[in-house]
Amino acid sequence: MQAHQRLSLLYQLSERMRGNRNTNKILNEGLDLILEAIADADRTAIMLRTGREGQLKLAAYRKSNNQDQDAQLQISRTLLGWVLSEKIALMTQNVLDDTRLKDSHSIRTTRYNAIICVPIIYKNKVIGVLYVDSANPVAQLTQDDVAFTAAIAHELALTIVNMQLQQTAIRNERMAAIGLTISNLAHNIKNLTMMNQNAVDLMKIHLDRIKDQKVEKCWKIIEKGLSRVNALSLEMLDYAREQDLSPTPMDINRAIEDNTASIIPQAEAKGIKLVFESQKDIGTTFKMVFPPMPDLKHSTLDK
Question: What's residue 235's pLDDT?
Fold first, then answer.
């Protein structure tokens, strides 16, 4: 293929990248152009570094029409390691005679004899590799093929990094919006708990004046309920904050007794008799187990 035709393909790839935000589609289009430009190429693939350790993972893979479409791609680790460490392209016309690959067992068993492997680099950092091979025994991959593959890798590097930056910016904006929502929610929750506490304080003052035992007995049940509302509200704030989850042991008997006392009037109104019998050797559990209990008990009574 003439140089001006390959240059035209590069322009096409650049134009497609501008209006495309799908990373997989862009990678596959780059590989399609390689198969179109390099007549002897049988397979081509892109591997990108992922995770903290930067392990290479297959991101895109294309085969020519004369290749077995079910065949699995296996790339020599020795070859990949050499390209990653040297940060330069590797081209070989005969993999069995290439001293750079003499320690690779997979190379000795492969039927692909000509290989091009180019690092995908951004600001001197290798973010992946672009791989091309050919099983044609008379195939002659040239330096022009290497230059074209490297040009594709350069275009892909810029696009990959730009899309990663865009995704990071979008993620940061979403996190900022979530943070603002949580901040507003925290403010409202604090107002709610303050109103509840004010109501409790006013009620206690009133009860001290009237000295009515029946009212005080009912009020204790209501007060426990309000205390739980405040506790659950504060727990909602805790969940919204980044924290070290350290479960706190608590007495199971006491927790069940407190939760049972608040629904005795409702149960008796439905003809249900609740009996609580404490157990001495029941042990302890963790405090985080009990927040769902109010929902559980009220759902049981509604059935």
Answer: 73
List Cα–Cα distances, 188 to 154, 195, 198, 236, 270, in angstroms. 51, 11, 15, 12, 35
Q: How far is it, in rounded angstroms, from Cα 120 to Cα 150?
A: 8
Cβ pair 255, 288 in contact under 8 A: no
Specify the pTM: 0.57
Judge contact between 266 and 301, C-beta under 8 A.
yes
> Could you tell me the residue ranges of all domains in the chain?
3-170, 246-303
Q: Which helix (H) or strand (E) holds 122?
A: strand 114-122
Tens of pLDDT, residues 115-152: 899 999 988 899 999 999 888 877 778 888 898 899 88
Interatomic CA distance for residues 119 and 82, integer angstroms: 10
Residue 51 is classified by DSSP as: T
Rounded to 5 degrees, what angle do the CA atoms 272, 275, 277 make? 165
Distance CA 61, CA 44 (A): 6
Are 61 and 45 in contact by the 8 Å Cβ rule? The answer is yes
Nearest to 262 by CA among 237, 231, 234: 231
Residue 221 tokens read as 């049940």
Distance CA 119, CA 90 (A): 9
Top-tier CATH class for 3-170: alpha beta
**Rounded Cα–Cα distance for residues 303 and 301 (Å):** 5
pLDDT tens-digit series, residues 15-59: 776 666 778 888 888 888 888 888 888 899 999 988 878 889 999
Q: How far apart are CA 262 and CA 224, in angstroms?
A: 7
Query: pLDDT tens digits, residue range 184-225?
Result: 777 777 787 788 888 888 888 888 888 888 888 888 888 887
For 40, list phi and psi in degrees, rounded to 5: -85, -5
